[in-house]
């Protein structure tokens, strides 16, 4: 997935944003909604819903030397108002090309309590959740079917909320855990370098319009 036109604006400033539009992760062909509306009642009441898609990617694993298994596709979402509130003052004057390669920019995204979500869509039958995230949480280690949607959401108060198919699984208040989880996608060694670059460009584009 490359630049997405609607990402460059906040929900408040773009009332005509197409809520039904989807983006396709190119390797798996899995679709992700451009706008992610939280299924959590508590989150619906907060100012951190909905969020906007800023990048997609996929996770593959080599099972033999010549074959790779497409484990899951993911969509990375951020809440634009939260993003502008936390980082607009620091980066709004920078050009997009100046930010998407800067280490401190991604570190600020991880450090600040910005509302963001990673949505995983399972792409292979019978996969266990610990393949997605080793030792993340025992209650999640049930067998998942192809097409299962798993959301990991960071809230502004430092909770990491987990939902499977819209069903609340658990919430842990730990800023360190939140940062460690999202570091897998926008940290120094991301699941997908291309996805991280797309995320950086689209997030920078939002900040430019804060």
From TrEMBL:
It comes from Linum tenue. InterPro entries: Chalcone_isomerase, Chalcone_isomerase_3-sand, Chalcone_isomerase_sf. SUPFAM superfamilies: Chalcone isomerase. Pfam families: Chalcone_2. This is Chalcone isomerase domain-containing protein. GO terms for cellular component: chloroplast stroma. Residues 53-146 form the Chalcone isomerase domain. One of its GO terms (molecular function) is fatty acid binding.
């Amino acid at each position: 997935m490359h630049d997405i036109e609607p990402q460059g604006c906040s929900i408040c400033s773009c009332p005509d944003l197409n809520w039904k539009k989807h983006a396709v992760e190119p390797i798996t062909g899995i679709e992700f909604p451009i706008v992610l509306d939280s299924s959590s009642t508590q989150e619906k009441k907060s100012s951190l819903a909905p969020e906007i898609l800023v990048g997609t990617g996929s996770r593959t694993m080599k099972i033999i030397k010549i074959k790779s298994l497409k484990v899951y596709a993911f969509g990375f979402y951020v809440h634009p108002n939260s993003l502008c509130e936390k980082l607009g003052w620091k980066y709004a004057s920078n050009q997009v090309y100046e930010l998407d390669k800067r280490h401190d920019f991604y570190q600020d995204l991880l450090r600040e309590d910005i509302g963001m979500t990673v949505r995983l869509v399972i792409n292979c039958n019978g996969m266990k959740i610990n393949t997605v995230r080793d030792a993340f949480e025992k209650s999640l280690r049930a067998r998942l079917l192809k097409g299962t949607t798993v959301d990991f959401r960071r809230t502004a108060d430092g909770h990491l909320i987990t939902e499977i198919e819209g069903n609340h699984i658990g919430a842990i208040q730990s800023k360190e855990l939140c940062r460690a989880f999202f570091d897998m996608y926008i940290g120094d060694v991301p699941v997908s370098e291309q996805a991280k670059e797309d995320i950086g460009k689209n997030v920078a584009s939002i900040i430019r319009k804060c």
